[in-house]
């Protein structure tokens, strides 16, 4: 079933795009990530221009976040005050990212920048995940099984204007989550990712948030920031392909159900090791692509 993508000016196999969305949906259900950090690279491998892939993939992340926020909210797993501060920062970051996106697009370097960002990001995240997974499977010291003491970074304690975030059990400056939201908003705009793979570790190890509200609060921020990012892309960069976004969303909703069922039966440490291997493989493939001459030397630039 061939489908024409108007923004990408490309005919693709619609069933294959749905299957691609299903694959990222399965990963989302298996590993608790939005899947956006893999959707965009896989679309680029398939031949979708990086600008269109990054702009359209954020829609899929929005859809995948809705049910997660509702589920975590029912069990009081969302710190709405903390999430609102990060959403405000994310909106500011998305606007900054939109300016950067248009500038890089105007000088013809947006495709290269998106690819480089993914290589650096996936290589770093994949390496850290691989090390953690191996340490979990084969602990190298007696401290490996000891619980980590929860506390925020010393720099966070030095920031002024402290607020109480009761659900997170924190008394810190709102500037810390605000700045974190700005950074994630910029990445969401440029790369079409939800940012959960950055938010969750940052909230745990930098902000020192309680683990039972981290995932829900992250999804709350991702939900609203990706909605704003999609609208901003549609109005400014005009790179959102609604047909592509719809096919991805359809596949991801179905795939997430299968991934959740598999996750209930599999060992978490083995799943983390598999995800780390997938992330590193994608990073290596993108790094390889940066070093060879592309089939098309021009990019799509909507008027």
Mean pLDDT score, rounded?
75
Q: What is the count of β-strands?
A: 4
Structural class: mainly alpha
Low-pLDDT windows of residues: none
**What gyration radius follows from the Cα positions, in whole Å?**
19 Å
Strand order of the largest sheet: 1-2
Q: Which geometry do the CA atoms define? A: globular
Domains (count): 1
Q: How many helix segments?
A: 11
Task: Determine the oligomeric state from the structure.
Answer: single chain
Description:
The chain is mainly alpha-helical and 303 residues long. It has one domain. The protein has eleven helices and four strands; from the N terminus they run E-E-H-H-H-H-H-H-E-E-H-H-H-H-H. It has a two-stranded antiparallel ribbon. Strands 3-4 form a two-stranded antiparallel sheet. The radius of gyration is 19 Å and the shape is globular.
């Amino acid at each position: 079933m061939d489908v024409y993508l108007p923004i990408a000016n490309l005919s693709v196999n619609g069933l294959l795009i749905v299957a691609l969305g299903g694959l990222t949906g399965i990963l989302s259900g298996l590993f608790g990530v939005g899947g956006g950090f893999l959707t965009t690279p896989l679309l680029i491998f398939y031949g979708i221009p990086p600008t269109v892939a990054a702009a359209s993939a954020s829609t899929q992340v929005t859809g995948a976040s809705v049910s997660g926020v509702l589920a975590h909210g029912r069990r009081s797993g969302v710190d709405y005050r903390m999430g609102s501060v990060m959403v405000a920062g994310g909106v500011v970051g998305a606007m900054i990212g939109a300016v950067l996106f248009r500038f890089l697009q105007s000088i013809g370097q947006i495709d290269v920048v998106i690819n480089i960002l993914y290589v650096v990001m996936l290589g770093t995240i994949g390496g850290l995940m691989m090390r953690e997974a191996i340490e979990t499977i084969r602990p190298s010291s007696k401290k490996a099984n000891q619980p980590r003491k929860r506390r925020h970074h010393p720099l966070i304690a030095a920031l002024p204007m402290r607020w109480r975030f009761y659900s997170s059990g924190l008394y810190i400056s709102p500037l810390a989550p605000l700045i974190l939201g700005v950074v994630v908003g910029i990445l969401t705009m440029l790369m079409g990712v939800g940012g959960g793979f950055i938010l969750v570790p940052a909230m745990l190890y930098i902000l020192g948030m309680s683990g039972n509200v981290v995932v829900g609060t992250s999804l709350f921020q991702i939900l609203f920031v990706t909605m704003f990012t999609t609208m901003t892309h549609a109005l400014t960069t005009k790179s959102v392909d609604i047909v592509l976004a719809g096919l991805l969303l359809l596949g991801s909703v179905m795939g997430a159900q299968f991934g959740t069922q598999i996750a209930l039966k599999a060992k978490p440490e083995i799943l983390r090791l598999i995800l780390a291997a997938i992330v590193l493989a994608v990073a290596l493939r993108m790094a390889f692509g940066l070093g060879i001459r592309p089939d098309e030397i021009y990019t799509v630039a909507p008027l």
